[in-house]
Amino acid sequence: MNIPFLDLKRQYQPIKEEIDQAIHRVVDSQNFILGDEVRVFEEKLAQYCGVKHAIGVASGTDALLLSIKAHNISEDVITSPFTFFATAGSIYNAGANPQFADINPETFNIDPEDLVKKIRENDKIKAILPVHLYGQTAEMGPIHEIAEDHDLTVIEDAAQSIGAEYHGKKIGSINTTCFSFFPAKNLGCYGDGGIITTNEEEIAEKIRTLRVHGSKPKYYHHIIGHNSRLDALQAAILTVKLKYIDKWNSMRIKNAKLYNKKLKEIEGLKVPDIDPQNKHVFNQYTLRVTNDRRDDLKKFLTEKNISTAIYYPLPLHLQPCFSFLKYKLGDFINSEKACSEVLSIPIFPELEKEELKYIVDSILKFFDKSK
Ligand SMILES: *Cc1c(COP(=O)(O)O)cnc(C)c1O
Fold first, then answer.
1. Which domains does the chain have, with CATH numbers?
2. How far apart are CA 311 and CA 277, in angstroms?
């Protein structure tokens, strides 16, 4: 058996007709920039998230960049060092300064205790940027309390977490929230794309202006913006795919529950927490492999033709490009440890029973637990 990490062809096949029709509709219209396709998708996505506004942009990275700019944040923004590069890269590119607080080793998300500590030490911090990593929501209750106490803006990075819920509330329904439609996300388009959700009319309008060069009215610029729009073609594809997101997410959750059941007893392996109060949508199913055996397990699975991935091998505070921030090894030990222990295994919705079984059996074999 040969198991890919992700196989998007299996997702396309059953909806090919609908998708092809949507693409042809846009091509026939020859309207490629904004217009009805983007407006319709924005409305549907806003409705899905239970939020007033959704503004389509060119990528998840630009969603972060434009959100930070729209909130006028030019001092420090605190986030997790254990996330995809774009989270901190966008803070810098928006003209602010990234700062970090360590993660909770159980959830891989920002630790509210360390967050408070870091905020007390630094009065330049103006915003908190929690990341809902792997599809699991950050601890938004405590984060909102901290934000209120210190009068800070909250902007969420939900690139991996469309459809996730915290205490019964959909991510994207409260603060300004950034989503990505990169093909490997739970709701992926056929290229790059992203969207920002917000309940604040003023922020929504500022983002709509920022994505068209800061132009309002056309050819008059009070602010310097970007060229960052969600393509009409991508919007048409996403309008089709949005109908299936809940189904696909529940298939991911089902796969994750099976893995958890079969793998939870293994010593030297920790399966992800599934908090019954929240909805984890499993963009990644990430194991923690202790006793320095992660790389051996990865190699073993590669030999069994099972693709795996490491998200992420180097925390952001140790990336060479951020050396000017003066962080050093040992500053965020939970994040550093996670980088050496995490291993993500295939979790995409269309995985077949036999494939899941083969993956489970191979992992059991590595730990010498096979029957
Ligand atoms: C994918 C991702 C992004 C960036 O999204 P793009 O659409 O690829 O620009 C940002 N943050 C996180 C956590 C991501 O996983």
1. 8-242 (3.40.640.10), 245-369 (3.90.1150.10)
2. 25
Amino acid, res. 189: C
Q: What is the DSSP letter of 12?
A: H
> Which amino acid is present at 108?
F
Q: pLDDT tens-digit profile of 127-169?
A: 999 999 999 999 999 999 999 999 999 999 999 999 999 999 9
User: Which atom of ligand 1 lies at the shortest distance from residue 193's CA?
Assistant: 7
How many angstroms separate the alpha carbon of residue 195 from the centre of ligand 1? 11
Q: Could you tell me what percentage of the chain is helix, strand and coil, using 3-state DSSP and rounding each to the nearest 5? A: 45, 15, 40
Residue ranges lining ligand 1, Cβ < 6 Å: 59-61, 83-84, 86-87, 131, 157, 159-160, 180, 182, 192, 194
Residue nearest to atom 6 of ligand 1 (CA): 60
Could you give the residue ranges of the DSSP H alpha helices within 78-169?
85-93, 112-121, 140-150
C-alpha angle 280/60/92, rounded to 5°? 115
User: Whole-prediction pTM value?
Assistant: 0.98
